[in-house]
Amino acid sequence: MRKNKAEPRRRPGGSFLLTAPYVVWMTVFILIPLGVVVFYALTDPATGMFSLHNLGKIFTGSFPRIFGRSVWYSLVASLICLVIGYPVAYWIARQKAGVQRFLYLLVMLPMCMSFLLRTLAWVGLLRDTGIINQFLGLFGIGPLPLIRTTGAVILGMVYNFLPFMVLPLYNVLVKIDKSVINAAYDLGANGVQTFVRIIFPLSLPGMFSGITMVFVPALTTFVISKILGGSKLVLIGNVIEQEFTQTGNWNLGSGLSIVLMLFIIFNMVISVITDKEGEAVSYTHLTLPTI
Which of 213, 183, 226, 190 is nearest to 280 (CA)? Predict the structure, then answer.
C-alpha cells in the first residue's frame, strides 16, 4: 500500500507574512486617517479638550434641514434606481450565459470612465445652451431651467449609481433555481403569480443590498450637488467638504463625518441582516469615502 505524500510543512509565521502588506496598507491609509478624524471630532477647537460638541452640531442650526434633504434625495435616487434597475437585472438574468456576460459588461462600462467626467457630461446636456435645450428650441420650447435644480441632482445620482443597483439584483436573480419557477408553472401559477409569489421574495436580499449600495454614496456625495445643483442645493457632503477646504474648521467637519459614518454603518448592518446568506454583491465593490 502506497503511503500518502506528506503534506508540505507550513513555515512558522507564513500566514502573517502573507497578510502583512495588507495590514500595513490598512493601518497607514485607513486606521490612522480614521483615528485623526475621530480625534478632531471629539476635541474642542479652542481648548483641545474632549468634547461631544462637534457631534451634536448635526442637530443645530441649518444642519438638520441639510441632512434631511440629503437623506431625502438619496432615498428618491435609490427608489428610482430600483424601478429602473430591477427590470434590467431581471432581463439580463433571463438571457443565455454568453449574452449575460456581454450585458453585464455594458452595465459596468460607464464605471470605467472618470466619475467627474460622467457628471460634467450632464452639464453639457442640461445647461441653458446645452444639447437638450437646443433641441427643444427647434420646436420653439425653452430654454428650460434643467440645471441647478433638484431634478438635476437626483438625475446625476441615478446615472452614476444605477450599476450599484443592477449588479446585486442580477447576482441574486441569476441564482434562482429554474426548477422552482417551473414547478410553480406546473402547479398552475401564471407569470404574474410566479413573479409575486416566487421570484420577488427570493430577490429581496438583492433589493435591500442594492438600495443600500445606492443610498450610501448618494448620501455622501458632494461632486454631483456642486456641479449639477450649484450653490442653491447644499447637501451634507458639501458642508463637510466646505468645513475642511474653505472654513478650515476640521473639528466640525470631522464631527459631521463621524455622524454620517455612523448613519452609514447602521444602513450597512441592516443590509447584512437582510442578506444573511451573502447572496448580493459585497461591500468590497462600494467606495464609501465621500465623492
Answer: 213
167-202 residue pLDDT tens: 999 999 999 888 888 898 888 889 899 999 999 999
Q: Write out the three cell numbers for 84.
A: 429602473
The DSSP code sequence of 81-108 is HHHHHHHHHHHHHTS-HHHHHHHHHHHH
Specify whether the CB–CB gap between 82 and 211 falls below 8 A: yes
Torsion of CA 197, 198, 202, 206, to 10 degrees: -80
Within 10 A of 273 (CB to CB), how many other CB atoms are there? 9
- C-alpha 131/C-alpha 42 separation (Å) is 48
Query: Does the N-terminal peptide bond of residue 168 adopt cis geometry, omega within 30 degrees of 0?
Result: no
Q: What is the 8-class DSSP label of residue 43?
A: B
What's the Cα-to-Cα distance from 287 to each of 140, 146, 220, 221, 283, rounded to whole Å? 43, 29, 10, 11, 8
What pTM, to 2 d.p., does this model score? 0.84
